[in-house]
Structures are given as C-alpha cells and as structure tokens.
Amino acid sequence: MTLDLDSIRAQFPALSLTHDGRPRVYFDNPAGTQVPQQVLTRTTDAMVQCNANMSGNFRTSREATELSYQAHVAMADFYNAASEREVVFGANMTTLTFMMTRVLGPLFNPGDEIICTHMEHDGNNTPWRIMAAERGLVVKTLPFNRETYEFDLDELDSLITERTRFAALNYSSNILGTINDVKEMCRRLRAVGALTYIDAVQFAPHGAIDVQDLGCDFLVASAYKFYGPHQGVLWGREDLLSALKAYKLSVVADQTPGKFETGTQSLEGQAGVIGATEYLQWIGTTMAVAHQPSTAGLRQRTREIHGAMGAMVDYEHQLSGRLIAGLQSIPGVQVRGITDPSSMKRRVPTVSITAPGLVPADLATFLDTHGVYVWNGHSYALPVIEWLGLQDQGGVVRIGPTHYNTIGEVDTVLQLVQDFMARR
C-alpha cells in the first residue's frame, strides 16, 4: 500500500493555512517540520490534565511522572535502544552535545586524538573543538569529496591511530543530503577503542534508526525535525551513561537518565514526542504494514515506526528525484549533492543549490512572495559551506521536501526557480 497523501496532510493543521490567498508550501522542513494533530493533542493534554512537577505524592504529579517515563519508552522504541534508561531528554541537540563535552572531556588526556568531519552541522563540530582546545587534544578532520559529496573511508583509516579516542560523525548532511555509512565508520573506530557520537538530526525524519545495529556509543536527534516539538533526545549506551559523571544537583539520584536531565524538564515537550511516535505508528499500521521489518527481537512499536519510515522514504525518493532532475534542467543551477537517479537511497531529500551570481537570499525572498518557504545561507553547517568555498557567496538555497509534500508542490517550486533564474 502506498501513502495516502490526503489522509496524511489532513493530520497537519498548518498545511491548510494560506499565504496571501495561496496555499503554503513548506520546503523548510530540514530546519523543522510541521506537526500533526496528535502532537498538539498530547501537548495540550499534558498542560491541562497533569500540569505538575514530577515525583510528588498526588495524582497530577504521579500522572506527570508516568507521562515522562512513557516518553522515554517511546524514544527507546524509536531508536531501538535496549532500555528507556538509555534515553536522555534535553532542550535541543546542541545543548545536549555541549553537556556531553563536559561529561566526556575528563576521559581524555593531552595528546589524545579526536576526529570531526567537514560534513558536520556546527552543533556537532564547535562543541568538540572547544573541548579539545580546553584539554589539549589533537583534532583531525575527515574531508568529503567535493565532486561526489561523500566520504572516502580510506581517508578515515588514514586518520585513525592508536591515540584516537573519539569521533563526532554525521549520519546525514543538512546541506548535502548525503547519508553516511556510519555503521562501517563506527566499526573501524571501535577497533581502536574510540567512542563515537552520531548526529542523526537530519537523518531521523528520513530513515529508521537502530542504535544497536549501528554499533555507536551515543546518538542524538531533535524531535522537531521528525514531526514533534522542540526537544533534543540523546541516546547513549547504558553502561557508559551509568559510569559517566553527571554535573547535577546534590539532591538528584546518581542514576541514568535522570542524573543528566538537569532541572525541571519540559513535560509538554515530552508529551509531544509521544504524539510524534504515535503519528508514525499510525502510518506504520495503516499504510506501511508491508514495510515493517521482520528482524528478530524488535519490539512491536519499533516495527511500526520503522515500517512507516520505510514507506515514507520510498515516497520521498520520488520527490527528491523529481526535484533534482528539474533543478538540473534549469540553466546555471548546480545541485550540491548526489544527483544520480539510481543513488537516491544514499541521500535524504534535502537539496541545496547554487548558481553563478545568484544571491541565495534573493531567491528565498522571491519564493516567499509566492508562499513557498525555503532556507538560504549556511544553515549552521559552516564546515560544509567553508569546505565548498561558498562562505563568501551567501551559502546555498536549501529546498527540503518531506513525506507530506506533494509532487505538485515540487513542480511549483521548480517553475518558480526557473522563472526567477530567467528574469536575472
């Protein structure tokens, strides 16, 4: 069964809004998706039915405590974690990553080596470089090929030494769209005892995540990228999280995940995360049963979520294939990422473009006048933009469809880009 786009779009209130009488076309999804009604319902219920702090001896507090627990269970299923104790909520990916630099920093000694890449969002780059500078660590940077927009893992091998202790890796680029072979990268790093930290923010809306299969040590994503609220969600191996020192208040028990979740948590945000997983389950059970994996040992909710992701990805390949082919047909436009129609499985539908003399902000502003929303600039992926030499050209224009977008919307943006380029 294919995705029922009408039923899916009906779940998202924002998709029915208009822009000066025109339908809104949301292609800003790489920076944050719209949310389905289930997320709004869960959030409102939390604020009305159990708006209390947790761990108290009264009904609303008990209900809030249980709701938070269920959010951890839901994300354990989303990540296929071994336990909900491996799930840590935070304000966002960047805040969680800065916290982890403080937690992991004491494990390293001066002269130890860490690996970052030229494909990182700055949230998985600058925090580790600050940690390295503070502790006298050596930072090595893995480049990507400027023609293929992919890593050469032989180059990773050349960076790994007996002093390699840590690597911050990108699952999928928020500029290039490239999906990296993080499982193989983690295997090579694990062979020398290095810890691995995976930024899955851009991948999470566009593919099933299985941390047990990946073999990484930590992985982080943001729920607002996969149809949920503004929450960061970190996964870490329980043995590591339990052994690591947390910077916490003295009254907080030395237990994971609570010892890492400083202060009062966003109950409404965690409730919204449950809503996001329930939305994915709805797709998985109504439109994607055939996509549910048969892998032994998966919990039922994990099967349903992974099934939904499989069906969504199949449809997104159609969107990205049409978008990329259409953009390539426009004189002067260059797609900065994988373009081979047979290679859509190696990328997410995030598509960035440049053109000689094009000011990205001008094209984004033009599209906005027609109700089409895209991002321009560096999108916090400074390592990518600098490696491509685009920092003085205003970066890129980024067009990011997701599963609730339509082929018609893709055609609309293609026509508008063509019109804009023809008028220059």
In short:
The protein has helices at residues 5-10, 37-49, 59-79, 93-104, 126-135, 153-159, 182-190, 211-214, 238-243, 267-286, 300-328, 360-368, 382-387, 407-423, and strands spanning 18-19, 22-23, 25-26, 87-90, 113-117, 138-142, 164-170, 195-199, 218-222, 232-236, 334-335, 351-354, 372-373, 375-377, 396-399. The chain has 424 residues and is of the alpha/beta class.
List strands and helices in order, with pairings.
Layout lengths: L4 H6 L7 E2 L2 E2 L1 E2 L10 H13 L9 H21 L7 E4 L2 H12 L8 E5 L8 H10 L2 E5 L10 H7 L4 E7 L11 H9 L4 E5 L11 H4 L3 E5 L9 E5 L1 H6 L23 H20 L13 H29 L5 E2 L15 E4 L5 H9 L3 E2 L1 E3 L4 H6 L8 E4 L7 H17 L1
Parallel strand pairs: 3-13, 5-6, 5-7, 7-8, 8-9
Antiparallel strand pairs: 1-2, 4-10, 9-10, 11-12, 12-15, 14-15
InterPro entries: Aminotrans_V_dom (IPR000192), Cys_dSase-rel (IPR011340), PyrdxlP-dep_Trfase (IPR015424), PyrdxlP-dep_Trfase_major (IPR015421), PyrdxlP-dep_Trfase_small (IPR015422)
Give an overview in words.
It is a single chain. This protein has 424 residues and is of the alpha/beta class. 40% of the residues lie in helices and 13% in strands. It has helices at residues 5-10, 37-49, 59-79, 93-104, 126-135, 153-159, 182-190, 211-214, 238-243, 267-286, 300-328, 360-368, 382-387, 407-423, and strands at 18-19, 22-23, 25-26, 87-90, 113-117, 138-142, 164-170, 195-199, 218-222, 232-236, 334-335, 351-354, 372-373, 375-377, 396-399. The termini are far apart. The model has no long low-confidence stretch (mean pLDDT 97).
